[in-house]
Automatic annotation (TrEMBL):
Family (UniProt): Belongs to the class-V pyridoxal-phosphate-dependent aminotransferase family. Csd subfamily.
Annotated coiled-coil segments of the chain: none
Cofactors (names): pyridoxal 5'-phosphate
TM annotation in the entry: none
Name of this protein: cysteine desulfurase
Length: 409
């Protein structure tokens, strides 16, 4: 069956609107995705009919809410190939998930001077700053992989970077700026050989690629709901259950305890240990509905559609004079995120002209300032695609860039 993007778009009410008198062309899904009515309806129905707190009450509403919340956890676990729902921890976003891991592993591993944490120059600030802070607190050393001119990880010094001193390797799986999909198998194998743990920031890959955590080579991954048709305020940390069971909690309060006395506290087993307080219940249920929607379409089909759209976009952008693409210039090993510059025009000016035409892109350093520094630019313009993106929207982007060139000479 062919991938019917026009039928899919009918599930997204936002595509009925105009922006500045033009049909909405939404090319900012790497920032946040739009939501289908199937997700919106599930969240609305829960609030209207089943609203109650989870894991606290024996009354009907509390039971129904708990069943919906835990049912979402189970479906998300299946979606990513987790061995058990207990390996799925709900957080408010990827940032919180990574901070949780940095805090908890720092304690568990007793990180200190002489130990090393390895990341890359390609990271979103959410997978950079928490590790900087951890190293500052503990005296450990932060090291990183560089980026090649083609926008891929430079693994030429792998054996030096990941050594017997390395305790944690934390890398982005798919770059939110360059679109690069990192094959981390070699790095993960090297990390395992020296006894280091591996974490992946999968914020961009889980929404767009068929992904099975059992084959990634990672011990932990993080991703977020609002980039995969779900609501904001909900993210996921997946970890091997045996590892989660060893990790101390990040936040303390209700729901994450086993028993409490005035003299001390013992903690619940994962995932409850890491879900202190009232969780984002409706948001988790909404993410479960988003996973159902994605599963119904098929992640292989979604990935193929995005490959086709990205190939079309790369051809279209390279045909516009003065446009420079950052990152891989073919669809091999890259996803549907394309960052670029227009000669002589600041990205903010590019974004304003495009917005006047109803074309929504993101401009700036995309919470990845070292990537911009690597390519010697203050900022970039980024177009990012998803299952609802059409070739007509790419054509509108190309026409918009022609208008940018006319406006700025």
């Amino acid at each position: 069956m062919s991938f019917d993007v026009e039928r899919i778009r009918k599930d997204f009410p936002i595509f009925e609107r105009e922006v500045n008198g033009h049909p909405l062309v939404y090319l900012d899904s790497a920032n946040t995705s739009q939501k289908p009515v199937q997700v919106l309806d599930v969240m609305r129905a829960h609030q209207e009919r089943y609203n109650g707190n989870v894991s606290r009450s024996v009354h009907t509403l509390g039971t129904e809410s708990t069943e919906a919340y835990e049912g979402a956890r189970a479906r998300i676990a299946t979606f990513i190939g987790a061995a058990s729902p207990d390996e799925v921890v709900f957080t408010k976003n990827s940032t919180e998930a990574i901070n949780l891991v940095a805090h908890s592993l720092g304690q568990m591993l007793r990180l200190g001077p002489g130990d090393e944490v390895v990341i890359s120059e390609m990271e979103h600030h959410s997978n950079l700053v928490p590790w900087q802070l951890l190293c500052e607190r503990t005296g450990a050393t932060l090291r990183w992989f560089g980026i090649t001119d083609e926008g891929r990880l430079d693994e030429s010094a792998l054996d030096d970077l990941v050594s017997e001193r390395t305790k944690i390797v934390s890398l982005v799986h798919m770059s939110n700026v360059l679109g690069t999909i990192n094959d981390v198998s070699g790095i993960a194998a090297r990390a395992r050989s020296v006894g280091a743990l591996v974490m992946l920031d999968c914020s961009q890959s889980v929404p767009h690629l068929p992904l099975d955590v059992s084959s990634l080579g990672a011990d932990l991954i993080a991703f977020t709901g609002h980039k995969m048709l779900g609501p904001t305020g909900i993210g996921v940390l997946w970890g091997r259950l045996d590892l989660l069971a060893q990790m101390p909690p990040f936040l303390a309060g209700g729901s994450m305890i086993e028993t409490v006395t005035m003299g001390g506290t013992t903690f619940a087993a994962p995932p409850a240990r890491f879900e202190a307080g009232t969780p984002p219940i409706t948001e988790a249920i909404g993410l479960g509905a988003a996973v159902d929607y994605l599963t119904g379409l098929g992640m292989e089909a979604i990935h193929q559609h995005e490959q086709d759209i990205t190939r079309y976009a790369l051809d279209a952008l390279t045909s516009v004079p003065g446009v420079r693409i950052f990152g891989p210039e073919t669809v091999e090993g890259r996803g549907g995120t394309v960052s670029f510059g227009v000669d002589g025009v600041h990205p903010h000016d590019v974004g304003q002209v495009l917005d006047a035409l109803g074309v929504e892109v993101r401009v700036g350093h995309h919470c990845a300032k070292p990537v911009c520094s690597r390519f010697s630019v203050p900022a970039m313009t980024r177009a990012s695609f998803y299952l609802y993106t059409t070739t007509a929207e790419i054509d509108a982007l190309a026409r918009g860039l022609d208008q940018v060139r006319k406006v700025f000479g």
